Amino acid sequence: MTGVRYATHSMKRRSPTLEGFKLIFRRPALGIGEISWRWSFGAGATALLCFSFLEYLDTLPVSNRDLFLLHTRQPAFISKALSHILAGSGQRFMVASILLTLTLTLAWVVIASLGRAATLKGLLSYFWSEDASKTFPFRMKALYGLNFLRAGAVLAVMVGSVGAMVLGGMVSSEKDPSPGLAFLIFLAVATVAWLVWSLMNWILSVASIFVVTSNADTLGAIGDAVGLVREHPGAVVAVGTWFGLAHVVAISVASSVIAFPVAFVGLLPGSVVFLAVLLIAMFYFAVVDLLYLGRLGSYVWIVEGPAIEPAPEIVVPPPVIPPPVYLGSPDERVDPDDLILSDIPVS
To answer: How far separated are the first and last CA of the chain, in Å rounded?
Structure first.
C-alpha cells in the first residue's frame, strides 16, 4: 500500500517588473554601458550633422549686396537676400542629406547591434550568475537584420507622415479651403502611421532577446517575440505599464525642473541658462535609457528567468495495521477435557 501524496503550494515566480527595477540599481555597469553606446552614436551623429551643415553653408555664395540686405534687419530685405543666396543649392542639399542619412543609418545599425549584443549578454550573465556554465551562442547577422528593419520602419513612418500631409492638402484647395478637415485627415493618418511604427519597433526590439537566448535568425526572432505576447500577455502588459508610468513621472519631473532656469532668462547670462537646461535634459535622457534597460531586463526575465522549483511533496506513510487475531467460530464447542478451562479438581 503506497503512501498518500499531498502536493504543497508551489512558490510563485518573482515579478518581472520588480526584477527589471532591481537590475537598474544592482548592476549600474550595465546602465553605464547602455548609456555609453547610445550617447556615443548621438554625439557622433550630432557632430557630423553640424559639420555637414557648416560645410553646406560654406558653399553658398554671398555677395556684398546680400550682406547689405541682411544688415538692414528688415524682414522683406532679409527674405530677398536669403532667396538669392539659396538659389540653385537645393540639389546639393538633397544629395548631401541623402548621403548623410545613409551613412548615419548604416552606422546606427552596426553600433546598435554591437551595443545590444553586449547588453543582452550582460543581462543574461546577471540572471544566470549562479550557473556560469550556461552559454548563449548567437549570430550577429540576425541582430543586423533586426536593426536594419527598425531603420526601415523609421523611414516608412516618415514617408507615411509626408503622405498624411499630402492627403490633408488634397481636401483643401484655394477655391474651397477646409483647413480643419485637412488637419483632421493629417492627424488621423499620421497617428495610425506612428502607432503602427511603435508596435513594429517594440516587436523588433524584443526580438533581439531571442537572437541571443535562442540563437534564432531574424524572422524566427520576430515570430518568437509575437509568441511572447501570446504566451505571457499579463506579464508583458504589466511590464510595459509600470515602466511607462515611470517614464511619465520622469518627463513630468524634468519638465518641472527645467522651468527654473528658464524663469531666469532675463536675469542670468544666456550661456548659463543654456548649460542648465542642457544638463537637465542629459539627466532626463540618462534616466530614460536606464528605464529602457530595466524594461528589457524584465522581458529577459520572462523569457530566460531561472525557474523556481516547487516545494517537495509531503508523502504520508500508510498506517501500520496489526494482523487480525483469530478468535474462532461461534459454532465451535468447548472441550471439557481441557485442563485450562476445567473447574474439576484433579485428585
So the answer is: 56
| CA 255, 260, 263, 264 torsion-angle sign | negative
% pLDDT > 90, the chain: 37
Distance between CA atoms of residues 239 and 213, nearest Å: 20
CA dihedral 178, 184, 190, 192 (to 10 degrees): -140
Which H/E stretch holds residue 11? none
How is residue 340 written as a grid cell? 485450562
Rounded CA gap, 75 and 54, in Å? 24
Average pLDDT over residues 200-209: 92
Pairing state of beta strands 314-316 and 4-6?
Answer: antiparallel
Whether the Cβ atoms of residue 66 and residue 81 lie closer than 8 Å to each other:
yes
What's the pLDDT tens digit per position in 272-326? 888 999 999 999 999 999 999 999 999 999 987 655 444 455 555 666 666 665 5
Give 54-119 as a DSSP string: HHHHHTS---HHHHHHHHTT-HHHHHHHHHHHHTT-HHHHHHHHHHHHHHHHHHHHHHHHHHHHHH
Q: Is the pTM of this model over 0.90?
A: no
Closest CA to 150 of 99, 221, 86, 215: 221
How many residues comprise the chain? 347
* Closest of 159, 157, 186 to residue 170, by C-alpha: 186
| Side chain identity at residue 328, one-letter code | G
Please report how the helices 90-127 and 140-170 are oriented relative to each other, as an axis angle in degrees rounded to 10.
Answer: 130
**Tens digit of each residue's pLDDT (9 = 90 or more) over 134-180:** 666 778 899 999 999 999 999 999 888 888 888 887 877 777 777 78
Q: What letters, b where the CB count within 10 A reaches 16 and e where it falls short, cover 97-111?
A: eeebeeebbeebbeb
In degrees, rounded to 5, the angle at the alpha carbon of residue 44 between the alpha carbons of residues 41 and 48 is: 135
Q: What are phi and psi of 6, to 5 degrees?
A: -115, 110
Q: Cα(185)–Cα(179) distance, rounded to whole angstroms?
A: 10
The three three-digit cell numbers of residue 113, written as one number = 547591434
